[in-house]
Amino acid sequence: PLEFHSQFDAHEKTYRYSILNRPARSAIRNNFTHLVKPPLDVEKMAKGALHLVGTHDFRSFGSDMSKKKETVRTIRIFEVTKVGDEIHFTVTGNGFLYNQVRAMVGSLLLVGFGTQPPDWIKKVVVAKDRQKAGPNVHARGLMLVEVLYPIPGKS
After folding, report:
1. Does the pLDDT at position 65 exceed 80?
2. Contacts of 18 (CB under 8 A, 6+ apart)
3. DSSP character for 112?
4. In sequence order, what are the residues at sequence separation of 6 or more whose Cβ sits closer than 8 angstroms to the Cβ of residue 8?
5. Cβ contacts of residue 28 below 8 Å, gap of 6+?
6. Mean pLDDT over residues 8-37, rounded?
7. How far is CA 76 from CA 60, 68, 91, in A?
8. What phi-psi label fits residue 25: left (phi over 0), alpha (psi between -120 and 50 degrees) or beta?
9. Which of 20, 67, 92, 155 could connect to 33 by a Cys-Cys bridge, CB 3.0–4.6 Å?
10. Are 83 and 49 in contact (CB under 8 A)?
């Protein structure tokens, strides 16, 4: 229909953020992964990511540039997996604030470094304060994987 909008009519989106976790950068994967040299604890980051699943006010992870007044979103899936020397953060939700995924991954990296425990992520969500979360990671590792739209006539 003429009133269709690809951004605002989306029902669900999936993003993947990829980190290359090794001492040296890859010439082939440089534009698609973010290099993090120190070893990361994938298991702890996966535990921390569980605190982001569900319906929450994600104000702590939204950029100041976000013009959204409503900051409540639902994350259905947040997986942290290791594939070879890459760590993938795959997140599916009904919508995201500007830089939200990059801020969530930046916060989980603090858990992976051992700077913060996994349950710290829950405290960041509850704080609703961008200053409490970790930094945004580089945009280079972020990829939009899938966008789902409602099927007309189906509920």
Report:
1. no
2. 29, 32, 33, 34, 86, 87, 88, 89, 141, 143
3. H
4. none
5. none
6. 94
7. 18, 20, 8
8. beta
9. 20
10. no
pLDDT for residue 64 is more than 60: yes
Q: Which residue has the tokens 């605002």?
A: 8
Instruction: Give me 93's structure tokens.
Output: 């939700």
* Under 8 Å between Cβ of 142 and 33: no
Provide the phi-psi class of 99: left if phi over 0, else alpha when psi is between -120 and 50, else beta. left
Residue 26 pLDDT: 94
What tokens does 131 get? Answer: 């200053």
Residue 39 has pLDDT above 70, yes or no: yes
Mean pLDDT, the chain, rounded, equals 93
Instruction: Tell me the backbone φ, ψ of residue 72, rounded to 5 degrees.
Output: -85, 130
